[in-house]
Amino acid sequence: EVQLQASGGGLVQPGGSLRLSCAASGFAFSSYDMSWVRQAPGKELERVSGIISGGGSTLYSDSVKGRFTISRDNAKNMVYLQMNSLKPEDTAVYYCAAECVVAGPIRCDYWGQGTQVTVSS
């Protein structure tokens, strides 16, 4: 069974930090590009970050660039998202996902259950 178990979400104040983790199992994790995709209330899905299978290249949406850092540990089948300088507009459900295509509607091969991040004072 393919599983992407996201964790680490919670309630933080603006300017705070949070580290999301995603534990993968049931597929060839090290061969898959991975992404973090979020959905804010009333908003469409947005891929905030991606990392290629080997971890050598990353990308970020303009909205999070300079604040978020994606990383992976293929030996542990783990993906992480370090989130700093959080803003209220970062409030969303964050999903760990594998092999996403974002040219048009976001499509991914595998999705995790998501973890809620709430940034509020």
Structural features:
mainly beta; seven-stranded mixed β-sheet; single chain; 121 residues; 11 strands; four-stranded antiparallel β-sheet
Sequence-ordered SSE layout with sheet pairings:
Blueprint: E1 3-7, E2 10-12, E3 18-25, E4 34-39, E5 46-51, E6 58-60, E7 68-73, E8 78-83, E9 92-101, E10 107-111, E11 115-119
Parallel strand pairs: 2-11
Antiparallel strand pairs: 1-3, 3-8, 4-5, 4-9, 5-6, 7-8, 9-10, 9-11
What would you say this structure looks like, in words?
The protein is mainly beta. The protein has strands at residues 3-7, 10-12, 18-25, 34-39, 46-51, 58-60, 68-73, 78-83, 92-101, 107-111, 115-119. Strands 2, 4, 5, 6, 9, 10 and 11 form a 7-stranded mixed sheet that branches. It has a 4-stranded antiparallel sheet with strand order 1-3-8-7, with no helix packed on it. The chain starts with a strand and ends with a strand. The model has no long low-confidence stretch (mean pLDDT 97).
Strand content: over 45%
Biggest pleated-sheet summary: 7 strands, mixed
What portion of residues is helical? under 10%
Separation of the first and last Cα atoms:
39 Å
Q: Secondary-structure element sequence?
A: EEEEEEEEEEE
Apparent shape: globular
Number of strands: 11
Given the structure, what is the number of helices? 0
Query: Helices and strands: which structural class?
Result: mainly beta
Radius of gyration: 13 Å
Chain-averaged pLDDT: 97
